[in-house]
Write a structure and sequence with these properties.
It contains nine helices and 26 strands. By secondary structure, the chain is an alpha/beta fold. The protein binds dihydroflavine-adenine dinucleotide (FDA) and nicotinamide-adenine-dinucleotide. One of its GO terms (cellular component) is cytoplasm.
Length: about 425
């Protein structure tokens, strides 16, 4: 008979949010044997952003254990030994197959029942598959997605099997842009294909996007915009040899990278917890509609106080901070306020680097030198008379801190022309 194990706290999912939550538990005084982390992945929590950056470098690539959490926030690196020393049970390589929030139990793929007093759902998200858009071929060995270490190893194999070859990158979002840059650095010729008029359409204006597209073109990247993939051609081994586009074009390839968005992993809780915006709806303490269940990271839809609305954010800083806040609320509810989070996104490609804070709503004011090739420029978003968002490429640490602080303060903006004249100086002096 299945006896199972019981814990006070269980974190379901072993990604970024799980790692930061574990550190916060320990910092606040966790007892031996109270906490367990269950993860489908075979390794302890790590900084996922490394997979599209350092992990793909041709020289001295980043490999575990170097990027376990929480090195991304310049904090302790939590190796499997650390979890052991702190009496935290790491159940790795184990998927949870079902959850029962009334009984407070989880059932694993190995048939074990794990019970909890408090559950933290940190299941993140899964990459959308081409099949969901009616295209078959995702299983071909030279078609790569990128969500976890297994995907990243597969991508490295494909890169190493295609020296000097041709790649098509499907999707013009974060994965598409970061992987395209990594492929170029590995001397692979890249064609990017996406349906929008410009890259990074969810966040960037066409003017900012064109700066990055011009930079990529100068590195030899081709852009095919406003169309999507319709099918693949395969060789007798089942490898993809060409990509057929809906506009009739055919592109020969050695490999394909797909980054067409994600879906949060909410499946275990459908019909048991309230969902919103594709995620698990939580309050300002990261607590779901069931008071014993919290949700953090990509899977959580939480109230973003500064915008007065519930959002789900798919970025590492939100994962780290929501994790810490949830643990604070669990262990010290009286001293923990509502989560008050300023959305923060960033990316690094080639030698370029940008940060964005707040919301990309309203009118846009640009400043700086957008002529290309590693210059410094930025933009502000102004909505209903207030500064609500700020973007900066090529800034210094102090300048990034300044745009974050200015966005947090939501200053009133009366004259857009004056804001444009002041440019970065506005944030620095606010
Ligand atoms: P995360 O996906 O990290 O972890 C979820 C974990 O739950 C996984 O280990 C998964 O296996 C496990 N799991 C799911 N279902 C399970 C089940 N049923 N049973 C057991 N385990 C289960 N963001 C950013 O701000 N800047 C950046 O530069 C990047 N770069 C970047 C690169 C790449 C390649 C990716 C894929 C993503 C990024 N991101 C990013 C996004 C960032 O990594 C993301 O927001 C966080 O990883 C979210 O952390 P979570 O812990 O919520 O999910
Ligand atoms: P994304 O949402 O950033 O971009 C998805 C892209 O898919 C869109 O830009 C669009 O061009 C494309 N697309 C949509 N439908 C398509 C279709 N039918 N055919 C072809 N293309 C289509 O998602 P992503 O790039 O896949 O990234 C996955 C996740 O990883 C996101 O949560 C993202 O935030 C995260 N991530 C973040 C960073 C970062 O913050 N620097 C870096 C890498 C990944």
């Amino acid at each position: 008979k299945n006896m199972g194990r019981a814990f006070v706290y269980v974190i379901l999912g072993g990604g970024v949010a799980a790692g930061y939550a574990a550190l916060e538990f320990v910092n606040r005084g966790l007892s031996i044997g109270e906490l367990c982390i269950i993860s489908q992945e075979p390794v302890a929590p790590y900084e996922r952003p490394a997979l599209s950056k350092g992990f793909l470098l041709p020289e001295a690539p980043a490999r575990l254990p170097s990027f376990h959490t929480c090195v991304g926030a310049n904090e302790e690196r939590l190796t499997p030994k650390w979890y052991k020393e702190h009496g935290i049970e790491l159940i790795l390589g184990t998927a949870v197959k079902s959850a029962d929030v009334k009984r407070k139990t989880l059932l694993t793929a190995t048939g074990e029942t794990i019970s909890y007093k408090i559950l933290i759902v940190a299941t993140g998200a899964r990459a959308l598959k081409l099949e969901e858009f009616g295209v078959t071929g995702s299983d071909a060995e030279n078609v790569c997605y990128l969500r976890d270490i297994a995907d990243a190893n597969r991508l490295v194999d494909a890169i190493q099997s295609s020296p000097g070859g041709n790649a098509v990158v499907i999707g013009g979002g974060y994965i598409g842009m970061e992987c395209a840059a990594s492929l170029v650095i590995n001397k692979i010729n890249v064609t990017m294909v996406f349906p929008e008029e410009h890259c990074m359409a969810r966040l960037l204006t066409s003017k900012i996007a064109s700066y990055y597209e011009e930079y990529y073109k100068s590195k030899g990247v081709d852009f095919i915009k406003g169309t999507v993939l319709s099918s693949f051609d395969f060789d007798s081994d089942g490898k993809v040899t060409a990509v057929n586009l809906r506009d009739g074009r055919k592109i020969s390839v050695d490999m394909v990278v797909v980054g067409i968005g994600i879906r949060p992993n909410t499946g275990l809780f459908e019909g048991q917890l309230t969902l919103e915006k594709g995620g698990i709806k939580v309050n300002g303490k990261l607590q779901s509609s069931n008071s014993s269940v919290y949700a953090i990271g990509d899977v959580a839809a939480f109230p973003v106080k500064i915008f007065g609305e519930t959002r789900r954010l798919e970025h590492v800083d939100a994962a780290r901070k929501s994790a810490r806040h949830a643990v604070a609320a669990i262990m010290d509810v009286d001293k923990t306020d509502e989560f008050d989070y300023l959305p923060f996104f960033y990316s690094r490609v080639f030698t370029l680097s940008w940060q964005f804070y707040g919301d990309n709503a309203g009118e846009v004011v640009y400043y700086g030198d957008m002529s290309g090739g590693g210059t410094t420029f930025g933009a502000y978003w102004v909505s209903k008379g207030h500064l609500v968002g700020a973007f900066l490429e090529g800034g210094t640490k102090e300048e990034y801190e300044a745009i974050a602080k200015a966005t947090r303060l939501r200053p009133e903006i009366e004259d857009l022309g004056e804001l444009e004249r002041q440019g970065l100086g506005f944030a620095v002096t606010t």
